[in-house]
Amino acid sequence: MTPFQQRIRGVIPAILTPLNADFTVDAAALRRLVRRVIDGGCHGFVTLGTTGEFAQIDDDQRSVAIRSAVAESAGAVPVIVGAGQPNVRRVREQLKIAGDLGADGALVNPPFYFPMTPDEVVRLFEELVKASPIPILLYNIPSMTKVAVNAATLKRLRDAGVQGTKDSTGDANNLNTYCHVMRDDPDFRVIVGGDRFFLHALLSGACATTGLTPNLAPYLDLDIYTAYQAGRWDAAAAAQNRCNEFLQTFLPLGEYGMAVAKAVLSKLGVMQKWVAPPKTSLGDPDVERVFAALRPFLPEFAAVPAGR
Questions:
Q1: Alpha-carbon torsion, ordered 166, 167, 169, 173, to 10 deg
Q2: 278 cis-preceded (ω within 30 degrees of 0)
Q3: What 8-state DSSP symbol labels residue 96?
Q4: pTM
Q5: d(CA 40, CA 215)
Q6: Over the stretch 80-134, which tens digit does the pLDDT of each residue have?
Q7: Superfamily of domain 3-236, CATH level 4
Q8: Engineering a disulfide at 187: which of 1, 80, 110, 123 sits with its beta carbon 3.0 to 4.6 angstroms away?
């Protein structure tokens, strides 16, 4: 197991990218958010992933986000940077910049827009692993990329030097297949995207979750992981049910989850509510509405869940 793989475990939030009104990165707010998830007990974080609106963040602002995240983390937890563009040269550049700025690893999606064959995916990642100064995790999110990486290809990527994957298919069966096919290599990191079936993922062999929830309430995922690690199955199930209750409340609040999450954190003084264009930030009445709905789950206000 590589030193990077040893650090990939537990709850690894995909953090939001706080923005100013002119859509530049709010470095001070990003550091507050990093401090929130670290102090909340998280084991690392991804910056400039899907939750971080990577596709809408200007290139010159990526360095602001990475530099701020690395500085606030100060080595306490691994910093993983999202990288992935249709243009391969730009991906190589993003990997180099992330490494130069002190990131610990990269989460790389296949290029989006054109479908790719398995051979093309393997050749691309072979090249990126050789060129990258930091370890690479595959980001499998076919709903966004139109590229579904199957389990057989996953083993080939492992052989090419990819150190793990985040599976964001939202399909428990796909996650099970990933874990099964990699059962002979427990060093390979299998991470579930989101937390809707985090406990199931852990029981199947996954090592971590990466998603939006811990930006708002880190304890929801941490309670699942901590109880699982201790073999407290009733407490783990209760924590998963509490997390799902949060998701059932959160998801109907708006079609763009990042706008909802930023609105809530704006009420807590962590960041401003702005999302990157062309998406739309919530208006003030909606900010109040979503905050009222989610307030009972926020660690600042939540009652301690049973079995915690």
A1: -170
A2: yes
A3: H
A4: 0.95
A5: 10
A6: 999 999 999 999 999 999 999 999 999 999 999 999 999 999 999 999 999 999 9
A7: Aldolase class I (3.20.20.70)
A8: 1
